[in-house]
Structure formats: structure tokens, C-alpha cells
Predict the structure.
Amino acid sequence: MYQVKEAFYTLQGEGAQAGRASVFCRFSGCNLWSGREIDRASAKCTFCDTDFIGTNGINGGQFATASALANHIHALWPQSSSRATPYVVFTGGEPLLQLNAELVAALHRYGFEVAVETNGSLLPPPGIDWLCVSPKGTNPLAVTHGDELKLVYPQPDALPENFASLDFSHFFLQPMDRGSEPLNAQTVKSTTAYCMANPQWRLSLQTHKIAGFD
């Protein structure tokens, strides 16, 4: 049974694939935080700005089989698009609690490229086409190679230099945004300064928030 908080067609908002048309599928649940404010202070990740509890978001629900969820995702992709490769981004919470090889294969049969954004604490199933790891604090990484490492910055216990030698094709720093608070201009400035001083890293801004799309 797959538990999906929400799923919708949009543009990828951040990282190396920013601006790309995507079906965005958010799984419910996380292994670093319950999602409840009462547990935030004691969580393994304390700065998450995402609601991943339940299945009550747009196009959310429970799906008994990989085929059923793949059909649901396929229906969200514009059927008039013949030249663009269908693209789905799985996120959470922590998507690798639920994403498995059966679902990846079902989406490949529809021609989708399958992307995942994970905290890196769990191993991914085979067949992922784009793997983005976003480390959280001191939580150990089970995934140390992939397409993209995207580090929310600053994290006092997760310094960029701790990850710079890992085997990723792209390295991004993304200014921390706590969701309920305005993005701090000083945070953006310090993130920009780090990238300029350490050009292995590129600046990632959440363009979906800047441009006003979800």
C-alpha cells in the first residue's frame, strides 16, 4: 500500500532540474521527524517546512498496487505532450520508505524518467534515473553517490566541506527556508558568498516560491 500525501503537475522548482515540467508526488511519512510540531525539537531533522502527514492533499490517497499509483501519476502528465519525456519527482517526508523497484518499473513502462529527492539515510531501489540527496544534520548517509547533492544551508552540524568529496555530479547549496518565516536575506547572502568562495558548489533557489507556483 502506497500512502501519497499529494501529487500534481508542476515545474521542478530547485536544483539542477529547475524549470523542468514534472509530476510531483509526495509520499507520506519520514524517518527523521514525525511531522508533528510537538516532536520537532527532539527530531533528527528540525527545520523541515513540509506537511507530509496523511493522504489528504491534492490528488493524494492510498494506492494498493504499483500499477494503480503509476496510472494515477500518468494521468497527471499532459497527454498532448509528445516530444517531452515524462518526468516524475518523488519526495516526502522520506520517499524511500515507500518507493520500490516495482513502482519504478511501472513508471518506466509509461516512459517516465523517475527522480527522487531523499535525505540519503536509506538505500534507493534500482532503476532511479535522477537521484538527489539532501543531507540532514549528523544523520549518517547510506547514499554517497548520485546525480545531485543538495545541502540546505546553513546547518551547523552539516558543513558543506563534510560532503564535498562525495561522488555526485552536481553540488548545490540552498538557503534555509523555514516556511512559516520569510526567507532571510542574510542567509541568501551567506549562501551566495560560500558558493563564490567554493565554486564546486552552485546556488539553488526555490524558484517555485519566487515565481509563485507550487
User: Anything to note?
Assistant: The radius of gyration is 17 Å.
